[in-house]
Design a protein that fits this description.
31% of the residues lie in helices and 26% in strands. β5 and β6 form a beta hairpin. It has 8 helices and 19 strands.
Length: 370
């Protein structure tokens, strides 16, 4: 039998109403549920009269209350996504506060165990954008290709924040030209040998290089609540109240990452390339790797006895006893590490946690920290 289109639509609305009432019964207010039942009955009555005008009026009234019980999918989806995003943010903040904290290796003091920023000059121009994006996502590699617009000279180099996430350098030229580079000033100076006073001809590269941005890892903030730090741990600590470390540029404590070499009461000595703990050669795997002088390791050093900054272990005969409430930290890249030899002990209360897992970039360091 032929059924008018308006009746077919009304029947579909009634079926939807039945599902919505059953599905949202425990969420919607009793008043809205009762209104939906009453208006469903009114629509059925209008359908029996086969009056198109009455059916459409009753149908519109029913749809009005159904949208209050179960909002249209677009707004519902937006709300659900917003709720999901809020849950994700809360979980992330909770993890960061109590369990895992992301940390970026700031310097090369732990190389080759963990990489800080490593920059290299190149002779060729950067690769095409597709390759650059791929290398950034996988290797954390960024390219710079700054060309002098005229015969010019560097007169200043200052730290600069290129955007919310990215620190770099502002290079001021004698001509007044300013170049902003996504590589930090200390790296430009120390690794690429770029300093104020250097002259460039028009068209000559000022900075043509790539920089691998360093390992990013999670720090386990839980374990040390149950077990004490162990010799050989890679650990992260705050620098406040360590007399030999200057306050950070914004007046806040910074975070350092080193190898825990000495526990309270330990007596340490360095006779290059070896580390001795309580009169015995340090044989644990992390120390043995450093002492091997293989695969990028250079051993433990104190061959700068005239360096006034080195307050502990500055000579082969020198020893230090770790204080009762502190730890002695050494970098795996001993010749290039400013560590407890220079600024003393890490107070117990400064310890943040243990380096756990390198999550980016996807190089040979990816995985659990050793």
């Amino acid at each position: 039998m032929f059924r008018p289109k308006y009746l077919t639509e009304a029947r579909a609305v009634l079926k939807a109403a039945e599902r919505i009432i059953n599905y949202r019964r425990d969420i919607a207010t009793p008043d809205l549920i009762e209104q939906a039942k009453t208006r469903s009955a009114a629509l059925k009555a209008a359908m029996k009269e086969r009056s198109e005008a009455k059916v459409k009026t009753a149908q519109a009234a029913l749809i009005e209350v159904l949208e209050k019980i179960h909002p249209p999918q677009d707004s519902q989806m937006i709300r659900e996504y917003a709720e999901l995003a809020l849950v994700v943010v809360v979980i992330a903040l909770g993890l960061r506060t109590y369990y895992l904290q992301p940390f970026k290796i700031p310097t090369g003091s732990m190389q080759p165990t963990l990489n800080g920023v490593i920059a290299h000059r190149t002779d060729s121009e950067p690769p095409n954008p597709v390759v650059r994006v791929f290398e950034f996502l996988t290797l954390g590699r960024t390219y710079e290709n700054v060309i002098s617009a005229q015969d010019d000279q560097i007169v200043g180099m200052e730290p600069a924040k290129l955007n919310f996430f990215w620190d770099g350098t502002s290079i001021q030229m004698a001509s007044g030209q300013v170049y902003r580079v996504g590589i930090e000033r200390d790296v430009l100076r120390g690794q690429l040998g770029i300093f104020p006073g250097e002259r460039f001809a028009q068209g000559q590269p000022i900075v043509r290089a790539y920089a691998d941005l360093g390992d990013q890892l999670f720090v386990d903030k839980v374990s040390y609540n149950f077990v004490s730090p162990s010799r050989g741990d890679v650990f992260v600590f705050k620098t406040n109240q360590i007399a030999g470390i200057a306050v950070g540029p914004e007046g806040y404590s910074e975070h350092y990452i080193k190898r825990l070499a000495g526990l309270p009461g330990d007596v340490l000595q360095i006779r290059a390339p070896n580390l001795f703990i309580n009169g015995k050669l340090a044989t644990a795997a992390p120390f043995a790797r450093v002492q091997s002088m293989k695969n990028g390791y250079h051993g433990y050093t104190n061959d700068m006895p005239n360096d006034p900054r080195m307050i502990y272990l500055g000579t082969p005969d020198g020893t230090v006893k770790v204080e009762s409430d502190g730890y002695f930290a050494l970098g795996d890249n001993s010749p290039q590490s400013a560590d407890s030899r220079y600024w003393g002990f890490v107070p117990r209360q400064n310890v943040v946690g243990r380096g756990l897992f390198v999550y980016w970039p996807f190089t040979s360091h990816w995985g659990f920290v050793r």
